[in-house]
Amino acid sequence: MPATAAPQNTSRSSGPGSGPVLTWEKRLEPSRLMAVVVPVISVILALAVGAIFLSATGFQPLKVYQSMLNGAVGSKYGISETIVKAIPLMLAGLGVSVAFRMLLWNIGAEGQFYMGAFGASWVALTFPHLPAYIMLPAMFLAGGLMGALWGLLPALPRAKWGVNEVITTLMLNYVAILWVDYLVYGPWKDPRGFNFPLTAPFSDAASLPTIAGTRVHVGLIFALVAAVLLAIILWRTRWGYEIRIIGESARAARYAGMNIERNIILVMLLSGALAGLAGMSEVAGITHRLQHGISPGYGYTAIIIAWLAKLHPATIILVSLLFGGLIVGGYSVQTSGVPAATVSMLQGAILFFVLGGEILTRYRLHFGRKEGK
Amino acid sequence: MKKGIRVLLMLLLALAVAVAAAGCGGQKPAGESKSGGNTAGGGQDQNQKMKVAFVYVGPVGDAGWSWAHDQGRKYLAEKLPWVEATYMENVPEGADAERVLTELAEQGNKIIFATSFGYMDYVINVAKKYPNVIFMHCSGYKTAENVGTYFGAMEEARYLSGMVAGKMTKKNVLGFVAAHPIPEVIRGINAFTLGARSVNPNVKVKVVWTNTWYDPAAEKQAALSLLDAGADIIAQHQDTPGPQQAAQERGAYGIGYDSDMSQFAPNATLTSPVWNWGPYYVKTVEAVKNGTWKPEQYYGTMKDGIVDLAPFNKMVPQDVRDLVEKKKQEIIDGKFFVFQGPIKDQSGKIRVQEGQKMSQEDILGFNWFVEGVEGEIPK
């Protein structure tokens, strides 16, 4: 954090005022209290605004909120589905976060997700008779590798010639999605699928183990392990130290003799591999086949999650769960007659207020005269 | 700061769990009937109403496919006051579908209508876990003890709309904005083409795939590309009126689908092949209530009233209307069958011999285009 803030403790200092002025001040040290209070208030405000809207359109806000919560965390099933929804978000969120730390704007998690799903599906469809103990590790490797490769493609021109990775990673998303579409509409189409864009189902050996009776699959462990490893890398290794320093100041890092080009490539490989694993765990854990539209935008949601979590691995896990709950609860609300568009509005309002409130934890709104000298 | 966020999230989660728990506690009776619902007798203890749920792939306001099903749901609720009919919209044909179906079964719904092809495997999966719930899957081909399918001969209405287009085109080029290359859509394009060429053998039908059911912008864009390629009437198999709106912008004609779409492009929409699900939903729910329901594969026809042609726009001249009405009567009377030979494929090879009728199986599995279609089915 650049320390250009006004002195924090003197803001309420008395003295002859020169009329009320409203000013923003950057907090020197983000307020601990605010970091807790503000988001809570933000959510309450969002719910209040939503309540006004809901009442105006003829719904009982409390009932709607209650069914949203019930859907997301009110039952064992709801909780399990919230986790299911959060798994790809966790992995892709962790993936983009490590790139963001180095100020590498990897917008390509969506494409890396698709390529990971592709790689895993290739193994499952090409070698259907492998036993599970070979099949799953092979799918894991193929998924991670394809994701990493898709991260490498934009990393090379960025490292060599400084080609802007925002554009290249974004564009490669479309390439990956179209590639998967080509396969599921073409060569990989299930011959018994009536021309519908999906591959034949994988063999049973290609299914990730699940927690009994739910759809929560081993992908959750991948995500948790990835979060721990990432934290270790970032704060306990030289490589992580370099990543953090390059993110703070590339110039200083270069001056200190760090190889930025090499780090760009390594970080994008890691970032892509994590998103690729998200794709692998989704096909192996949930859909058990590759199909058109396998991701409803996980790779993009992951970007929001990474930022809301301030790129911190543990927080990404938690924020992903919150998003999972928001999505799962959103569907449940519909059974009380609330249209999907209203649900999206509620979800949007919560995001808007939380992100808006975020500013308050970093800046203070100061009433009164301007700081004296 | 990071610690702060973590504490906050914990608090939020705790709050969430607390409120949810409070909600469960406060609503004991509802909770009990809920758990009763998935074993048997579903929801009979709540106001004696039978719970029925609908799952839609698009929003009910799409003015097309999902809207037409929702009209059917409303009709059902109106005709059978002892039914409580709810819906879930915007449910993607993927992992989410399985959860939504499970949730609906868990909530004590006795019948669940899943109204998109891509729900098929998820319907079968969930149906296994809830043997006392009846699942009706629209447009699919897999059935089970408690899973039936239903669909209709939209090709009949498509054929008639093709006749209108064949008569009204000036450039002899028709455009068709098509969703996914699956038999349902291919069948419709073929019927439309056969209808158009029955009145105008010079007509060509150009096809563009959007690979989406619901994406108003993409649908409109596809229509514009067809107009650029010389088409002067745009037909469509999508869930929104986007294609006709594009036609109207360019001063061309369009043909709607699913519901009477004339209000969205009044100067373009000549007519629309439409679905009329309501009576079928009433019949099905009554059959379940009376215990006469069986897992069948229902395929309704124009005679049954499940498919129809929306009223003609005033631009359609009387002689065209008469021609189409006459053919419609022949279809209803069983004197005319859409997929009757001779039918040639795109290469000119005869695929259905003169006098021969295509089998229902072949019609449901259509994977080739008839002569006169310009476009490719991805292989």
UniProtKB/TrEMBL annotation, chain A:
Tell me which domain of life the UniProt entry assigns to the organism this sequence originates from: Bacteria
KW Phosphoprotein (keyword) present: no
Q: Which residues span the membrane?
A: 33-62, 82-104, 111-127, 133-153, 165-185, 216-235, 264-284, 290-309, 316-334, 340-360
Metal-binding as a keyword of this entry, yes or no, is: no
Q: Name one GO cellular component term.
A: plasma membrane
Q: Where along the chain is composition biased (Polar residues)?
A: 1-15
Places the protein is found = Cell membrane
**Keyword annotations for this protein?**
Cell membrane, Membrane, Transmembrane, Transmembrane helix
Which stretches does the entry tag as region Disordered?
A: 1-21
GO MF terms listed in the record are: transmembrane transporter activity
Q: Which residues form a coiled coil?
A: none
How is this protein positioned relative to the membrane? Answer: Multi-pass membrane protein
Principal cellular location given in the protein's record: membrane
The protein here is known as D-allose transporter subunit
TrEMBL record, chain B:
InterPro entries under this entry? ABC-Purine-Binding, PnrA-like
State whether keyword ATP-binding applies: no
Keyword list, A-Z: Signal
Q: Where is the signal peptide?
A: 1-22
All residue ranges annotated as the ABC transporter substrate-binding protein PnrA-like domain in the record: 50-333
Does the keyword section mention Signal? yes
- The highest taxon in the source lineage is Bacteria
GO cellular component labels: plasma membrane
Name listed for the protein in its UniProt record: Purine-binding protein
> What species is this protein from?
Neomoorella thermoacetica (Clostridium thermoaceticum)
